[in-house]
Amino acid sequence: MTSGPDRTPLARAFFDRPVLEVAPDLLGRTLVRTGPDGPIELRITEVEAYAGEADPGSHAYRGRTERNAAMFGPPGHAYVYFIYGMWFSLNLVCGPEGAASGVLLRAGEVLKGHDLARARRPKSRNDRDLAQGPARLATALDVDRSLNGTDLCAGPAAPLSVLAGTPLPTSSIRNGPRTGVGGEGATHPWRFWVDGDRTVSPYRAHVPRDRTRTKA
């Protein structure tokens, strides 16, 4: 007899570990978004680790600001930021309070609430790409800055929580450089994904902005 994913909520101790331990261990876990329209459940398939003030690729590299304050808070909370003036991204804070480490959720497989996700992502070509990429994931789950600082361990009524799901063996996990990260953090192999999973987003290297202007 085959049992389904474990529905035990992850305790705060799960997140209170070094970010490079938490990030790959999140693969296969179930993210639950509970909203007024109903729940959406998603199996996490791709993540990126960001190591706070020790990581040039992290928002917290230069210290605490109003924008990144949630990263410095207790583990097991959400850090949501707005990027390019268009999209939100969802991160899960980990490590001890003050360490500012976080895991960006890059992609996942929608397990429940497909109709809600499709309504929020009407241009999606199929269910495989409903949450294929951090912006699509946040859009499908109706994540915005109002969820910044949300306690993931507050219980089943919380707007965001993570269940034990089906953790993966090391042999099923791959890692490589983070998407779109330049500078000193470009080569850190801190992107982790489920090997062969079709919901994983395509890798894109960082492309520096061209600040030159062509004169006529």
Automatic annotation (TrEMBL):
<dbReference type="InterPro" id="IPR003180">
    <property type="entry name" value="MPG"/>
</dbReference>
<dbReference type="InterPro" id="IPR011034">
    <property type="entry name" value="Formyl_transferase-like_C_sf"/>
</dbReference>
<keyword id="KW-0227">DNA damage</keyword>
<dbReference type="Pfam" id="PF02245">
    <property type="entry name" value="Pur_DNA_glyco"/>
</dbReference>
<protein>
    <recommendedName>
        <fullName>Putative 3-methyladenine DNA glycosylase</fullName>
        <ecNumber>3.2.2.-</ecNumber>
    </recommendedName>
</protein>
<dbReference type="InterPro" id="IPR036995">
    <property type="entry name" value="MPG_sf"/>
</dbReference>
<keyword id="KW-0378">Hydrolase</keyword>
<keyword id="KW-0234">DNA repair</keyword>
<comment type="similarity">
    <text>Belongs to the DNA glycosylase MPG family.</text>
</comment>
